[in-house]
């Protein structure tokens, strides 16, 4: 799947940390100030999350100086999206 290949590229430069449990990855979200979220890899299977990643890639690409995946959207929108994924 192309999304996993893109994510792997982004995460390859990210330092592995004890703060990110196995089966999860870190995402930095925000328009101005970035907040770090640790979310399950299983979210990659959800079409709504994939759409958000594709939009982020088109607008900003996936290589960022912070070392992790960065999504420039409002944190409220992101929390709403992942809350919906948690219920499914």
**Euclidean distance between termini CA atoms:** 22 Å
The poorly predicted ranges are none
Individual helix count = 3
Share of helix, binned = 40-55%
Overall mean confidence score, pLDDT: 78
Strand content: 15-25%
- Largest beta sheet, briefly? 3 strands, mixed
Q: Which structural class fits the helix and strand makeup?
A: alpha+beta
Strand order across the largest sheet = 2-1-3
Describe the structure.
- This protein is an alpha+beta fold.
- The chain has helices spanning 2-12, 47-60, 75-87, and strands at residues 24-29, 35-40, 69-71.
- A 3-stranded mixed β-sheet has the order 2-1-3.
- Strand 1 and strand 2 (35-40) form a beta hairpin.
- The chain is globular and about 30 Å long.
- The model has no long low-confidence stretch (mean pLDDT 78).
Topology:
Layout: H1 2-12, E1 24-29, E2 35-40, H2 47-60, E3 69-71, H3 75-87
Parallel strand pairs: 1-3
Antiparallel strand pairs: 1-2
Summary, kept brief:
The chain has helices spanning 2-12, 47-60, 75-87, and strands spanning 24-29, 35-40, 69-71. It is α+β, with helices and mostly antiparallel strands and 88 residues long.
